Structure formats: C-alpha cells, structure tokens
Amino acid sequence: MKADHHPLEPRREELEHWLAVLSKFALDEVDALASGPAVGTVGRAGLDIADAVSQPIGEQPLTGGVEAVTDLLRQASSATFIPPSPGYFAYVPGTGLFASALADLVSGALNRFTGISTAAPALCRLEADVIDWLARECGYGETSGGVLLSGSSLANLSAVITAREEHFAADGDYRRAVTYASGQAHHCVEKAIRMAGLPPANVRRVAIDSEYRLDPEDLAAQVRADRAAGLQPFLVVASAGTTNTGALDPLPAIADVCEAESLWFHVDGAYGGAFVLCDEGRRLLAGMERADSIALDPHKGLFLPFGTGCLLVRDAEKLRNAHSAGAHYLRDLDALDRSREAPSPAMYGPELSRSYRGLRLWLPLMLHGAAAFREALAEKLRLAWRFHAGLLRLIESGVPLECVAPPHLSTIPFRLVRGASEALADWNARNAALIERINAQKRVYLSSTSLPVADGEAVTLRVCVLGARTHADHVDQSLADLATAVG
Ligand SMILES: Cc1ncc(COP(=O)(O)O)c(C=O)c1O
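Above: query sequence and pyridoxal-5'-phosphate SMILES. Below: predicted holo structure tokens.
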C-alpha cells in the first residue's frame, strides 16, 4: 500500500462508479414496484435469504466490490414486506418518495451538524421553514414550534414529556399523574408514559363508541372521578386516525373537556394528521388546531421514507422548556450571535447529533410543490370510499362480509360475518385464513387486527390506503382478490 493511500477516501471516479451502480439498483427497485408483487419472500424462505446474505465483516473490501455488495442488497430487499408497493394496504403504507431518498444522499454526503443552528443557520432555517409550514397547515399560529424526529413513537414521547414538564415541573412527583386515551390509541403512547417515568397504572382507558372513537362523556366522567379521588389528571391523548381501524376521535368535544379541566390535549396524528393538507381532510380534522401538541408522521402521510416524524407544539416555549440543555463544550456555539437564528433542533427534542431530516421534507416540497401532496392526500380519501363502496356492493350481492366501520380517513376494517352459533375461535380462524388467501395472490397485501366483541377479540381485516403510488386500479384489484378469496 502506498504511503499516501487512504482507503476511506476513494478517488472521485470510484465514487461515481459506486453511485452509478447503487443508484441504478435503487431506480430498478422503484421501477419494479408498478408491476411487482405487493410482498416479497417472507417467512421461512425469507430467513433462508437472511442466512444467505449474512457475511462476516472482513478486514478487506468484499470481493466483487460494489457489484457484489449490490447483489447482496438486492437479495436482502427481496425478503421483505413492500410498503412502497401500490398494492400494499397493510399496517400504514410508506411510499418512500425518491426525492427524499436523494435528500438523504445529499445530507449524508454534506454531513453538516444541524443540532445547534449556529453551526448551520441556513440549513436549520430550511428545516424550520418546513416545520412552520406544517404548523400553519395544522392551524397553529406564530408562537408554535416543533421538531422533526425519527417517527411518532418519539414524537409522542416528547409530547408526553412536554405535558409532564408543564404540569409537574415544580416538584417532580408524578405518582398521582393520570393520562387518558382510548384502548384504540397506539401502543407507543403507553410506552411513552412508561419511558417518561409516569405511572402506567394511571393510564385510563376511555370508552369507545361503535366506530372505535373515544367517548368524550366517559372522558369527562373519568377525569371528575379521578380528581375526586385526589389524583392529578393532566394529559389526554386523542387519535387522528387509529392504526387499528383509522378511527378519528371527536377532536372538538375532547378539546372542550381538556379546556374545561385544564388538561394537556395531545393529538396522535401519526397516521392521519397529514390529511389536514387537503380540503376534505382539513374539514375532517377540525379541532386538531385546538390541541396543545400534534404528532404527525411525514413518513406516512407525506409519503417520505421511514425515519421522519414530527412533533408540533402550540407554544414552542413549552417544548423548549422540556428539552433544552447546555454544555460547557458548546460554549463556542453559544457565543456566536444568536439573534437571527432558526431554532436549534437540539433544544426542542431529545437528540443532539442527528440526521438532517429537514432536507427529507424540504427537497420533495421544492421539487414537487405542496399541491402535489394535497392532491395525493385527497385522492387517498376518495380511494378509501371507493373501497368501501365496492365492499358494500359485494355484501349486497350476498358475499358474507361485514364492514365494521366506514372510513373516517383512509382505513376500512371489515371481516367475514360470524355464523349464528359460531365459536369465536372458529370465526377468527376463518378470518385469518381469508387474509392468507388474499395475500397469497401477492397482488395486494393486507394486514389484520383484533377488535373487541362481546365475548373477546375478533380478527378483523383492514385496508389502509396511503401509498402515493396506489390508485383506483389497485383498490379495484384488492376488491377482486377479496371476492376471489371469499370464494
Ligand atoms: C397512530 C400511530 N401512532 C404512533 C405510531 C408510531 O409511529 P412510528 O412508527 O413512526 O414510531 C404509529 C405507527 O404506525 C401510528 O399509526
């Protein structure tokens, strides 16, 4: 090896070659989505692929160079669910806009430090611009602020901590703190309560209505009862689209309770919050602007790659109070003129060094324009109703299915009708077999959940329409495959 050879600094021609090979691979994968399966090789065969690609970490580069590396990646990515597929209706689909992937490439290559805005004021300003834009779209005013995090698990955690600091900062005694959410809230809410050092036993399960929405009257009654018992109600978490059924909690009525009882009102809009960008969604989400904080996931509703969540807080100072901290070794940054700075992400969230997430949002917004996002979201709402209408047509034609709830946003829960004296286990087995038959065709991919019924939990299928590449023909395909699978 020559004395001036530094293996971590390849020559430009080599980098260009890597880039060409890897970007061709990425583009081929994206191109294949339109005609490829909605799910890859998973289960036991997927584990075989995992064994085949697993390599010892060698002291020298992999033999075969970037081509061999890409081949391993191609195999590994064949053994997956495919959330960006147009036929993927499972869980919450994730599109992974290519413009955002380019943002990752650029920000990784630039690798500027964007934790403290003094170190990159203009890059931080671009990030602040997209956060401000999202806040205005959600109906928040000038005093609001926010932070981009990895997803809504962290956004909900930071919201819980902000609410906790607001209510209990003085003595740090959280033993009597009570949180309220419906049993349909995402499990990360309870996880956040635990991680925030709040008592999990004091999480109240508020009753739900027949469409799985939180019941505000039960909420008010439980808050009154807890206060009477000497406890300290402080936080209500409502869902703007539950993961299970897409249920949209009645935000205005919940806001009324929170106002009357001086409770922090947090909206988990991880899945549904971004619908605020289109006219119909804004109408549906009325009341969200009254929340103290809103979590929403650009990696869901704004079609970005996984790893982009957002927390917005009506009063940015409260978010800052809960997250800001200083360090001696940051004194050079503190000493610089801060008067015209964008907010420092590190002061509004748990991370210091972080990926430059702002570019993941900013670049697609600059390249596509906001209108493209609004139109795509409006389309997803229409597609959900298209699926719903198709489902009702199947039911009218005698197919033994039931629609469990109409779409509040873009998710539709449904299942086979239970037989007159059918045991719960048998009914559940029939629904589990149904989803297997639908998914085995690989044109569409659905997931199931379980929902409370009188004698337990009923396996329920669900279609969640949120892929940017999903259009009417894919919804029609899902209905056709459902009809075939029911038989
Ligand atoms: C309603 C809801 N809240 C929170 C989360 C957790 O978000 P993340 O996976 O981005 O951490 C999800 C994820 O699907 C969700 O649907």
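Residues 92, 151-153, 186, 188, 239, 242-243, 268, 270-271, 297, 309 surround pyridoxal-5'-phosphate (CB under 6 Å).
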